[in-house]
Amino acid sequence: MALNNPAFSNSPAFNGKGVPAIPTPTAEQLQAQFDLPSAPPPAAAEPMTIEGTLRVTFGNFAVLLVAAAIGWVTVPVVPFLWIGAALIGFVLALVNIFKKEPSPPLVLAYAAAQGVFVGGISAFYEANWPGIVSQAVLATFVVVGVTLALFASGKIRASKRATKIFLIAIIGYAAFSLINVFVMIFGGADANPWGLRGADIPGTSIPLGLVLGVLAVLLGAYSLVLDFDFIQKGVQQRVPKKYAWTGAFGVMVTVIWLYLEILRMLAISRD
Known about the structure:
Layout: H1 6-9, H2 27-35, H3 50-73, H4 81-98, H5 104-128, H6 132-152, H7 160-188, H8 208-236, H9 244-270
């Protein structure tokens, strides 16, 4: 029978014992309850701030730089460590992007993995084109600094139309990059190590990779504007301070991408 179910048989409402009567409180007892101090309101979540976001961002970049130094010095010993770090960083990037709530450990893990990758690939570029890393670092600082200055002064802002154009351009650029990888692996690497990027624009002696590099830098600069806009709106709307990690993650992804694109563009220009 249904009454054999423990959910029913253990309940006094179903086991025949009935529910014990609840005594009616007296007027004095009710007054004593009303006289008790009210519970304090729950503490509001500490909001996101510009200063807090800067601290989180600088902390993540500190982890990235330490890991980059490790990736740089381990290239002669473990030459393919940075490739494994790139794969791990890619997976962690996807996890952080699709995760609804920011996770500081996962963001720091991404910074560490990408640091090893950036350090290793930088050592590779430096071995083939001496002095290129310092040039790429300086150029990246200039792009980030100029973009931040323009955004802070109000001379550049994110807009719906510009963001729509940005999304179309970034999808097209990603599709081209994917096709170019297959060309480099299955037929373009023997003729040109840059694949389609190394080919000259018809009628000129300008490599396609240089034009695409300039486009990538512009896309990266606008991506920074979107990152700064997210942080600004988060501070204005007083979202919880944990979202400072989301802002720091976005800035870090964009800066790494910018640096790698500038590094490749400089290498193509030297060739």
